[in-house]
Amino acid sequence: MKLTVEERPDLEEAEVTIRCPAIDRRVRAIMAAANAVDCRLLGTDGTGTFIVEPSEVLYAETVDGRTFLYGRDRVLESPLRLYELEEALAGTEFVRASKSLIVNFDHVRALRPYLNARLELVLSNGESVIASRQYAPAIKQKIGL
C-alpha cells in the first residue's frame, strides 16, 4: 500500500482520496477510521450530558423504546433512536446484531454458536450479547467465515 500525505495550508478542511483497484478489507478499515474521527455521540446518565467517542462504546441497545450506550464502566442514554445511531456510525466498526442491538466489532473478542442459529458475541469487558439468526450471517461474513 502506498501512502501519500500532502500538506496544503490553503485548504479549509482535510480531504481524503483513496485510489484502489478494489475495495477490500484494508480499504474498508481506512474508510471506517476516517469516518470515526469526526463522529461524536451524546449520552446522559442523570448527572449530565456527555460527549462520547464511538470507540468507547461496546454496544448500543434499545430497551422499552429508549436507546442506551454501553461502555466499559458506564451506561448512558442516547437521544437518538437505534437506526439513527446506526446511520451516524455507518462506515465504522459498528454492526447490527439484532433488531434492538448494534455492536462495536472492535470490542468483540470471541464468537460462539448459540441456540437456533444465533451467535454469542463475547465483548472486551467479558460481557456477552446475542446476535439474532437474521444478522448472524453478516457478522460471520465480516470476520471471513
UniProtKB/TrEMBL annotation:
InterPro entries listed in its UniProt record: LytR-like (IPR046947), LytTR_DNA-bd_dom (IPR007492)
Gene Ontology MF term list: DNA binding; phosphorelay response regulator activity
Pfam families membership: LytTR
Gene3D superfamilies: LytTr DNA-binding domain
Domain HTH LytTR-type: 41-145
Protein name, UniProt field: LytTR family transcriptional regulator
Lineage: Bacteria, Bacillati, Actinomycetota, Coriobacteriia, Eggerthellales
